Amino acid sequence: MASFALFFAAYLLFAGQVSAVELGAAAVCGLLASIWSALVARTAPAHFGFAPGMFMALLRGLGQIPSGSSRVVLAAVRAAGRDDVSVVQRPFFRGAADAPGDRTRRAIGICARSIAPDSIVLRIDPDRDDMLVHVMGEDAPENPRWPI
After folding, report:
1. Is 25 helix (H, G, I), strand (E, B) or coil?
2. Quick one: angle between helices 100-115 and 54-63, nearest 10?
3. Each residue's pLDDT tens digit in the chain (148 positions)?
4. CA atoms of 97 and 38, how far apart (whole Å)
5. HSE-up of 104 (CA within 13 Å, CB side)?
6. What b-and-e string marks burial along 62-90, b requiring 16 or more CB atoms within 10 Å of the CB?
7. In principle, which of 4, 98, 105, 118 could form an S-S bond with 30, CB 3.0–4.6 Å?
8. Helix (H), strand (E), coil (C) string for 113-137
9. What per-residue confidence (pLDDT) applies to 84?
């Protein structure tokens, strides 16, 4: 139902006008999106498990964009030829490889860590519970379950 509402609203937004034809086309797009998401959910080999609070890490990452951007600009201006960039290893609890909740947490955690302008995840080590992160400036210690 959420995919129907999302695609219905997106179609109407980008159509630029509301008429009977546009409403019909939006309903068809919403129906196709619902069918597609149901098929993917049933046939996908990797399922995700969402829990309340999982997106808080992503919101924290988005919230760090303004301050992170200013830190990157200041570090770039101060560096002027110096190397103020480092690659560090940070703890990151991977969890079970086939558990939907752990798979979702890993995806959101890596995305949230990489969305900040002053860091990006380079690699997750499959044998150990850590990640290789490229950081600009200082890197604060973090929670191994949520690498923000």
Report:
1. helix
2. 0
3. 788 888 888 888 888 788 898 899 999 989 998 898 888 878 877 666 667 777 777 777 778 778 777 777 776 666 565 555 677 888 888 888 778 888 888 888 888 777 776 777 888 877 788 888 877 766 665 666 666 5
4. 24
5. 14
6. eebeeebeebbeebeeeeeeeeeeeeeeb
7. 4
8. HHHCCCEEEEEECCCCCEEEEEEEC
9. 54
Treating both helix axes as pointing N-terminal to C-terminal, what angle do 65-79 and 54-63 enclose, rounded to 10 degrees?
A: 40
Kindly state the DSSP code that residue 91 receives in the 8-state scheme.
E
What end-to-end distance do the CA atoms of the chain give, in Å? 32
Residue 27: the pLDDT is 92
Strand partners, 5: none
Q: Which two tokens stand for residue 118?
A: 């002053």
The two three-digit tokens of residue 121, written as one number: 């995840």
CA distance 148 to 117: 12
pTM confidence score: 0.46
**How far are the Cα atoms of 80, 113, 114, 148 from residue 53, in angstroms, in the given order?**
40, 16, 19, 14
Token readout for 50 is 């969402």
